[in-house]
Design brief:
The radius of gyration is 18 Å and the shape is globular. It contains no helices and 28 strands. It is mainly β and 331 residues long. The protein has a single domain, classed as Kelch-type beta propeller (Neuraminidase, 6 Propeller), CATH 2.120.10.80. InterPro entries: Kelch-typ_b-propeller. Keywords: Iron, Kelch repeat, Lyase, Repeat. This is Nitrile-specifier protein 5. One of its GO terms (biological process) is nitrile biosynthetic process.
């Protein structure tokens, strides 16, 4: 454990071999377990469609004995948990086809269920990959990503109670279509942070679902550099941003761009950014990376950001697990 002022970072030991190094995958936390799905080791080649489970108590991996509508392998997929249920949306298959199925996984019964697809009455968002997902107590939100005809800037919500999709107004020209943005629910609004829209972006937008209105917000403080495909989480009124890609590779997804390993928080009340002194260069620091799997959750009663794997500056996939715990006002 390393303490950097008011920020603590743990690297979690994995007591036995797990799913291995990968990027463009997704994780979700339910209780003391981390569920990991999808991803790639070689660029654009999905690894598997097993649901790997990491126990934060025993620090051991297992594979869920899953039944039902098991999703095919994919990359660029997202996951979010509401209660004991995990929701998985979209991604890209081994033929580079964009997908739009929504699946649920019941962690109590280990059963997959296909909730919506292209051919159903409740088709939901168009096909996409490298989009972003966030959730509150009743909704799973989907924003942006790489669609069949280009980058997207649409926002959808799946109501987990009514089992229906809601299509919100599109963000508009001020919020360009983008892949790999941050998406966070904070103070009753949905926040879109940065992303790649043909270039790395450094803008912040928020949507008020009560009034159905988008707004671009001006931020102050020590602002992060433009970036995409970074881990992010909402903790109370704060948005936490770690790492990401600040300059894409000339080889596109086949190569490694320039990654960064810094940590920032955005206060969504004051709209002020703060950079955290998180000890770069120390042995336990996760270092520069992007295309990670990440999720917000609790460990030992403390809220934070869990990061698993990703791509490194050397274009090598990573298999380490880190948990960040910030000390924030009102948390």
């Amino acid at each position: 454990m390393l303490a950097f002022g008011d920020f603590v970072s743990f690297q979690l030991d994995q007591k036995e071999s797990g799913p291995g190094a990968r990027s463009s995958h997704a994780i979700a936390l339910v209780g003391h377990k981390v569920y990991a799905f999808g991803g790639e080791f070689a660029p654009r080649v999905p690894v598997d469609n097993k649901l790997h489970v990491f126990d934060l108590g025993t620090l051991t991996w297992s594979v869920a004995d899953a039944t039902g509508d098991v999703p095919p392998p994919r990359v660029g997929v997202t996951m979010a948990a509401v209660g004991n249920t995990i929701y998985v949306f979209g991604g890209r298959d081994g033929t580079h086809k964009e997908l739009n199925e929504l699946y649920s996984f019941d962690t109590c019964t280990n059963k997959w269920t296909l909730l919506s697809s292209t051919y159903g009455d409740n088709a939901g968002p168009p096909h996409r990959s490298y989009h972003s997902t966030a959730a509150d107590e009743q909704h799973v939100y989907i924003f942006g990503g790489c669609g069949v005809a280009g980058r997207l800037n649409d926002l959808w919500a799946f109501d987990v109670v009514d089992q229906k999709w809601i299509e919100y107004p599109t963000a508009g020209d001020s919020c360009k279509g983008r892949g790999g943005p941050g998406l966070v629910v904070a103070r009753g609004k949905i926040w879109v942070v940065y992303g790649f829209a043909g270039m790395e972006m450094d803008d912040v937008h928020c949507f008020d679902p009560v009034h159905g209105k988008w707004a671009q917000v001006e931020t102050s403080g020590e602002k992060p550099t433009a970036r995409s495909v970074f881990p992010t989480v909402g903790i109370g009124k704060y948005i936490i941003v770690y790492g990401g890609e600040v300059d894409p590779s000339d080889l596109g997804h086949l190569g490694a761009g320039k990654f960064i390993g810094d940590v920032y928080s955005l206060d969504t009340e004051t709209l002020t950014w703060t950079r955290w002194d998180d000890g770069p260069g120390l042995d336990n620091h996760p270092g520069p990376r992007g295309w990670c799997a990440f999720a917000g959750g609790c460990r030992d009663g403390k809220q934070g950001l869990l990061v698993y794997g990703g791509n490194s500056p050397s274009n090598d996939r990573l298999d380490d697990i880190h948990f960040f715990t910030p000390a924030l006002d009102g948390i």
